[in-house]
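User: I'm writing a tutorial on reading structure tokens. Could you give me a worked example: one chain, its sequence, then its tokens, then a sentence or two explaining what the tokens reveal?
Assistant: Sure. Here is the example chain.
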Amino acid sequence: MFRSTTLMLKNQAVGVLVSPVRLMEIKGITLFLFTFFVLIFSASAQDTFVSIGSGGGFAGTATVYKVTPKGLIFKGEGIGDIKFTLCGKIKKARAKQIISQVTDQARATTEFQHPGNLYYFIGYTENEKQQTITWGDADHPVSDEIEKLYEDVHATVRAINYRPIH
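And here are its predicted structure tokens:
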């Protein structure tokens, strides 16, 4: 079974036979390249984003969510170097609201770095400037406003259906 495709070369129709397997390969390669360039562009073009997550415990791994202004949410896990392997999406308006709230709250909070065995963090990166609030140490509790913001944003990013990044 071959699919016939007609090409126009110098105003002359030329028939080309393309096997279904080859057609699937071409579609697969095209889809891969499109996805690759979209991810590379969106990852490199994001100067402003929010990071939220938690980590620690016996294994010491962290789960991190990255919220972009375009509504893309990247999810990653790791020890030290986080590898983002999943991607989801929320509405741009909600993403911008999250970024605005986190940025405002982080700017209003003085340096707060008090992780415990289990720790939580929320922060933003804007044009390579980064500010993160980290807590978990029972002797240094975070403010109720930060905890409420964390719970709100965390509930939003956890409720998303994620797909693997290829």
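What the tokens reveal: The chain is about 35% helix and 40% strand. Residues 26-45 have pLDDT under 50 and may be disordered.
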